């Protein structure tokens, strides 16, 4: 086992442990917005200790039974909004990867292009689902269709921004870092995906800031 594989195993273990810690806590102290009980553990997988710190600092105060004062400023609220977007994207991307791999898919002879296409579609689908699950409980008068329209407005640009960061890293991995890029059945691949998700989060944050500032998306 080479150094990169050891680092990959450590990163995956830390991410999964972070997810588990958050999951146990949201089970004990469920969030007021139900979908956030899913969002925070997903972010734990790729952000590890950063997700742990931000959850206990900015996320846990929104637990139903704790009733703490919400003194978060816009940067913190935008960060939480970005975790919501990133979780949907991450789940979609994670589901899209094995579909492409096991189906042996390629578009125009390119497996990377197949990954881009399938993962974007899956990420968008889950991103919209997560948005609807956030919007509808607070605005039931809009109905499902109205909530879906609001979700499209709120999530499209933030999702595109996320995928720009993620897909950009995937291109670097594919064309620059490796002579033979890792495959989804290798631990190194999932370490690269963790990095991709972090970069996607970073590129999505400014988009979420703009959407919240313009009132297109509610700060969470």
From TrEMBL:
Keywords: Membrane, Transmembrane, Transmembrane helix. The chain crosses the membrane at residues 6-26, 38-56, 113-136, 157-177, 189-212. It comes from the Bacteria. InterPro entries: DUF4396. Residues 77-217 form the DUF4396 domain. The keyword Membrane applies. The keyword Membrane applies. This is DUF4396 domain-containing protein. The lineage of its organism: Bacteria, Bacillati, Bacillota, Bacilli, Bacillales.
């Amino acid at each position: 086992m080479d150094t990169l594989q050891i680092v990959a195993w450590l990163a995956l273990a830390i991410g999964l442990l972070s997810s588990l810690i958050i999951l146990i806590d949201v089970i004990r102290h469920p969030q007021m917005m139900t979908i956030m009980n899913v969002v925070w553990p997903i972010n734990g997988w790729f952000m590890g200790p950063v997700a742990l710190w931000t959850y206990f600092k900015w996320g846990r105060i929104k637990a139903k039974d704790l009733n703490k004062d919400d003194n978060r400023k816009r940067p913190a609220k935008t960060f939480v909004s970005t975790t919501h977007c990133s979780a949907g994207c991450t789940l979609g991307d994670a589901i899209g990867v094995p579909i492409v791999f096991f189906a042996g898919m390629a578009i125009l002879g390119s497996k990377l292009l197949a990954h881009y296409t399938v993962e974007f579609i899956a990420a968008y689908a889950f991103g919209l689902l997560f948005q609807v699950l956030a919007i509808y409980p607070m605005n039931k008068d809009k109905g499902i269709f109205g909530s879906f329209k609001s979700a499209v407005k709120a999530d499209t640009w933030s999702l595109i921004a996320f995928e720009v960061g993620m897909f950009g890293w995937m291109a670097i991995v594919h064309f620059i870092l490796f002579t033979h890029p890792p495959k989804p059945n290798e631990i190194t691949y999932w370490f690269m995906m963790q990095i991709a998700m972090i970069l996607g989060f970073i590129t999505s944050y400014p988009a979420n800031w703009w959407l919240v500032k313009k009132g297109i998306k509610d700060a969470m």
